[in-house]
Amino acid sequence: MHLKRQRAGMAQQRVESAPLPHAVGVMPNPIKRTVFFISDGTGLTAEALGHGLLTQFENVEFKQIRIPFLDRVEQAEATVARINAQGEADGLRPIMFTTLVNPALAAIVHQADAFCLSYFDTYLAPLEAELGVQSSHTVGRTHGAADSSDYKKRIEAINYTLAHDDGITDRGLEEADVILVAVSRCGKTPTSLYMAMQFGLKVANFPLIPEDFERGRLPGTLEKHRPKLFGLTIQPERLHSVREERRAGSQYAALANCRYEIAEAEKMMRREGIRWLDSSTKSIEEISTTILQELKLR
């Protein structure tokens, strides 16, 4: 198999932080609120909790500020001043998600003029009461290295996934947990990396290109790994829009070409019996969860 499958516009996609999604047809002047994620660790738990709730409010525009590694009284006092100043500037009190383990620091921060949702007050205290056991109240337990085997597995999965991006090689496919196939710019790379980082899965991905459609069969040695294959497709208009951002006015981005590639890719996946989904309006998390369910992966 040709080990380096090259094609214009097939540069590796990057997973980027994006603002919370808004509904189509949002009113001209959406509500705007500032949200703080405050933690004595990385702040990722606070953000995960906050994002899960905030995405339910489609007509509200959230300005998000993360304050991680808050572990000193001076930082806590400065944070309170910052939150209060932001509230005065906005004319509305900010919203605050906290995962502060240190009760003294939490007491200071919670004095801010903000609507506060504390991870530990809301969830940990009731759980302690239910279990009849005091929690350890240890900073960084959520993202610590306590489970080193899982951490090592994720690192190995990320390295594998990067080494098998965009059909770079077909070596070692027997190690893959998932092999994604799709035309260029359907979301293969970000989905692959998310599954590697979040679930420790080794994910390879292969672009479907015109030569594959002309031959009428899957690229390279993929046929013998059929149980691991999962396909992505996308609406041609959406693909056209995405490709135009990369190579405006090119044949690669032309709507007619996008329609052709999508039609041929879907025809191939149906013929080969490959499970697939439309990624046009789905998040990486939704795509990954569907793949886990369809391929029965843990």
Nutshell version of this structure?
Helix content is 42%, strand content 15%. It is built from 10 helices and 8 strands.
Structure, described:
With 298 residues, the protein is of the alpha/beta class. It has helices at 44-54, 73-90, 103-109, 119-131, 148-163, 188-199, 210-215, 236-246, 255-272, 284-295, and strands spanning 31-39, 60-67, 95-99, 115-118, 178-182, 203-207, 229-233, 276-278. The strands form two sheets. The chain has a four-stranded parallel sheet with strand order 2-1-3-4, sandwiched between helices. It has a four-stranded parallel sheet with strand order 6-5-7-8, sandwiched between helices. Helix 5 runs antiparallel to helix 6 (188-199), helix 6 packs across helix 10 (284-295) and helix 8 packs across helix 9. The chain starts with 30 loop residues before the first strand and ends with a helix.
Computed structural class: alpha/beta
What share of the residues lie within helices?
Answer: 40-55%
Query: Overall mean pLDDT score?
Result: 86
Strand content: 5-15%
CA radius of gyration? 23 Å
Query: End-to-end span in angstroms?
Result: 31 Å
Poorly predicted regions are 1-27
In DSSP terms (H or I, runs of 4 or more residues), the helix count works out at 10
Largest sheet: 4 strands, parallel
Shape: elongated
Order of helices and strands: EHEHEHEHHEHEHEHHEH
| Biggest β-sheet: strands ordered side by side in the sheet | 2-1-3-4
Strand elements, count: 8
